[in-house]
Design brief:
The protein is of the alpha+beta class and 345 residues long.
């Protein structure tokens, strides 16, 4: 009798275990199916957008990406965008385009009659328009439709700057949507040309820069600005050390050093200035990058003012070099008369 009771209890326990296992397995299956169902529309919707984009881009001029940094886009915003592009395959190229800008000089004073050129992507491929800035430096483009807008400015007697050409996205949130604001126009800068001087420059034929290949083991070479040659003596000492690429990390150990033995360098971050500073020069600028490190970089691209010799001479140098090639591309402009004026004639 006792054995019979134990047997019945054991059967009940096994039955309960099987029931709970079946219940849990069914719930997990439902969750998996629900997740797959929810993710499927986004995948299906993204395909036609990409296909239409690729087709129309063959017919249009490529524009630069928006200059503004790309924010993190909420999922619901992108889902809404995908729905619109699925419903209308040319949705991107029919967005309202309005733009307000202003041109100022190096003193933030408005510049009038600046030539402004617009190019935008639309259902025709590309369209263009031109205007000029008014007496307060303002200009605009309104009531157009398209996806991306490129704005370029220029005027005789002025230098262009890094802001003289800018691009803006009106359709795809993932590219950083531009929001036009008539009360807060986009500012473009030009610099009025002044009295130029005769400069010693790196230009050789059609090339404005020199190609220098220092040894990859760190052995130094010197650049003589006046002789326009690399050798055992000069005003700028260049050293580079670059190991072969590590194919596991696609990185390497490498470094680079610039030295001005009787002067120094100060970084140039102002493309509106042609006057070299007279203080804060640093004799050595050096970079080190370690294979696998989070701050590893594959290249250096810098611009400096340079001061050297006694009495001092002033100039600018622009250079760039990469991790896996020995070549350094270097462009320079030197005022030989000792003035800090670096504006070319």
């Amino acid at each position: 009798m006792i054995m019979k009771k134990y047997f019945i209890a054991l059967v009940i326990l096994v039955g309960l275990g099987v029931f709970w296992w079946l219940l849990a397995n069914r719930a997990q299956k439902n969750i998996t199916q629900s997740s797959a169902t929810n993710s499927q529309p986004a995948q299906e919707q993204s395909r036609p957008v990409e296909t239409i984009s690729q087709t129309l881009q063959k017919q249009q001029t490529q524009l630069q990406p928006a200059t503004a940094s790309k924010p993190s886009i909420p999922n619901n915003v992108m889902e809404e965008y995908f729905k619109k592009t699925e419903a209308d395959p040319v949705y991107d190229w029919k967005r309202p385009i309005n733009f307000w800008g202003r041109v100022v000089d190096e003193s933030n004073e408005p510049i009038t009659t600046v030539s402004v050129h617009f190019v935008w992507n639309d259902t025709n491929g590309t369209s263009e328009a031109d205007t000029t800035s008014d007496g307060n430096g303002f200009f605009s483009l309104t009531d157009r439709k398209g996806k991306g807008l490129s704005v370029s400015i220029g005027k005789e007697g002025y230098y262009g700057t890094s802001s003289s050409r800018q691009s803006f996205e009106y359709a795809n949130p993932a590219n950083g949507l531009f929001t036009p604001d008539q009360m807060n126009p986009v500012v473009f800068h030009l610099r009025k040309k002044g009295v130029g001087v005769d400069l010693i420059v790196s230009q050789n034929g059609m090339s404005t820069f020199m190609k220098i290949s220092p040894p990859a083991n760190g052995s130094p070479v010197f650049l003589d600005f006046f002789a326009h040659q690399v050798g055992n003596s000069g005003q700028l000492k260049i050293e580079g050390w670059k190991e072969p690429k590590d194919h596991k990390t696609a990185q390497n150990n490498w470094g680079f050093r610039l030295t001005v033995p009787d002067g120094g360098l100060v970084e140039d971050t102002d493309d509106l200035s042609f006057e070299a500073p007279d203080i804060d020069y640093q004799s050595v600028w050096e970079w080190h990058f370690t294979d696998g490190a989070a701050d590893w970089q594959g290249g250096i691209n810098k611009k400096y003012y340079i001061k050297f010799s006694n009495p001092p001479r002033y100039g600018t140098i622009n250079f760039n070099t990469s991790a896996f090639t020995p070549t350094v591309y270097l462009e320079y402009k030197i005022n030989p008369d000792g003035s800090r004026n670096l504006e070319p004639k």
